[in-house]
Design brief:
Layout (H helix, E strand, L loop, with lengths): L6 H14 L13 H38 L3 H21 L7 H11 L33 E4 L2 E4 L5 H6 L14 H9 L29 H25 L7 H7 L2 H31 L13 H17 L1 E3 L5 E3 L3 H8 L1 H26 L4 H4 L5 H27 L15
Antiparallel strand pairs: 1-2, 3-4
Helix pairs in contact: 2-3, 2-7, 2-9, 3-6, 3-10, 4-7, 6-7, 9-10, 9-14, 10-12, 11-12, 12-14
């Protein structure tokens, strides 16, 4: 296992060394070519546009498979819809590096990718379902209900609309109440994963979407409608985010371009470091491992977590290298942070590339394990020392990588990057 690194300690040591040096102060020179840096920021926006556009096209493809499932419910059409959902995750997970530092994304993301969720809010669950304590919506079962009372508030659920579903997110003040986004769709396609930390994902039957005598699950018309509405809302949300990154528009991209070069570069590096450290290493891996909790794994119904983690890591690498492979196989490449860092500190640039390769290899280990039948929820099982070592190795690689991201920020004269730790210690 790689040794864990104190990110704050590395930063403090670096600052102290520079402050205590007996060398005469050097003549101030720019940390980077500003015109080139502007091109790096513009290309960052191009990559965001490409990745969100891919996520949108894959969501539309998912909607087509859902239409087929609802027209002809069968295990084959359900399997195809599930695969379309997995495919849709590939570009989307690479967009999450844009979330941190760009408030327009962070404020939007909760409706699109919030997790973990109390699935009893949406549909039927097993009798022994363990909901989040104190959640008033934990067993609301929107699909089976025409109304819902939370405290003194009486809600009309008779018509399932995008506006209604969106309003139910964080119902009653509980973050576990998630009614929309990728994970709501995931739950509807797979159902609960009742296997705990054992092998197997959710096993919802296709007959839960049937309308005739073979129908199971109850309230199938409502379930079918919910699936259609929540998928359409996902598409609309992605359309809105694509619009924010279009060039030559009055949108967030224009705001980013109008800002300072330092601010743009900070957003890029902060996004990389925060996804790497607090979110991926912390919230998505450390929490689940410490609690041995499959409810805390990212794609808990489908057991697709290994790929979600891998493509989060790929998104971090994309931003640094200025490269993104589109779903059609084409590679978008352009001016990069790597080039800016290499111009001043080529050894540090190479070190960060090495760390990115190491974290990718560690996350690939999760993918390889799943291919052999041992998924993330099994790796985090109590008593699975080998699985814990595999997950910890990935966590440690991300921590080391974040230290190099902070060093790269200093080379570009971006002081105190302070990536979000999500209150985790590493």
């Amino acid at each position: 296992m790689l040794s864990r690194v104190s990110i704050g300690g590395l930063l403090l040591a670096s600052l102290l060394l520079s402050a205590c040096s007996d060398e005469p102060a050097a003549t101030s020179t720019p940390a980077y070519d500003e015109a080139r840096a502007r091109l790096v920021i513009d290309h960052y926006a191009d990559m965001a546009l490409a990745a969100y556009s891919d996520a949108l096209s894959e969501a539309r493809e998912l909607r087509e498979h859902i239409d087929t499932l609802l027209a002809q419910p069968s295990e084959e059409t359900l399997a195809a819809a599930r695969q379309a959902w997995r495919d849709a995750r590939v570009p989307y997970m690479q967009t999450e590096v844009f979330r941190f530092g760009n408030s327009v994304v962070d404020e939007w993301e909760g409706q699109v990718n919030a997790w973990p969720l109390d699935e009893g809010l949406i549909d039927y669950v097993a009798d022994d379902y363990q909901a989040v304590m104190g959640n008033p919506g934990a067993r609301a079962n929107i699909i089976a209900s025409q109304s819902l009372k939370i405290g003194e508030q009486q809600m009309d659920l008779s018509e399932l609309t995008p506006e209604l579903l969106a309003s139910l997110n964080e119902l009653g003040g509980s973050e576990a109440n998630v009614a929309t986004g990728y994970h709501a769709i995931e739950f509807l396609l797979w159902g609960q994963d009742l296997n705990g930390t054992g092998p197997g994902a959710g096993e919802r039957p296709a007959t839960d979407f049937a309308t005739g005598d073979s129908a199971t699950g109850g309230h199938n018309a409502r379930r079918r409608q919910y699936l259609e509405v929540v998928t359409d809302l996902l598409i609309a949300d992605l359309e809105a985010m694509v619009a924010e990154w279009q060039p030559e528009q009055d949108n967030y991209r224009a705001e980013l371009a109008a800002g300072s070069v330092e601010d743009g570069l900070r957003k890029m590096l902060f996004g990389m470091g925060s996804l790497s450290l607090g979110e991926l290493a912390g919230e998505r891996m450390k929490v689940a491992l410490a609690a041995h909790s499959p409810e805390d794994e990212h794609d808990c119904f489908s057991d697709n977590t290994h790929f979600s983690h891998f493509y989060n890591g790929k998104g971090i690498e994309n931003v640094y290298l200025g490269e993104y492979q589109r779903v059609n196989g084409e590679t978008l490449s352009g001016p990069s942070l790597s080039e800016l860092v290499a111009a001043s500190e080529p050894q540090l640039d190479q070190a960060l590339k090495t760390d990115l390769d190491a974290s990718e290899a560690a996350l690939q280990t999760l993918v390889d394990s799943a291919a052999k039948g041992v998924h993330f929820d099994q790796l985090i099982a109590p008593g699975n020392a080998e699985g814990a070592a595999t997950v910890n190795h990935a966590i440690d690689a991300l921590v080391v990588q974040t230290a190099s991201i902070e060093k790269a920020a200093l080379v570009l004269d971006i002081q105190a990057l302070n990536p979000d730790t999500a209150n985790h210690s590493f």
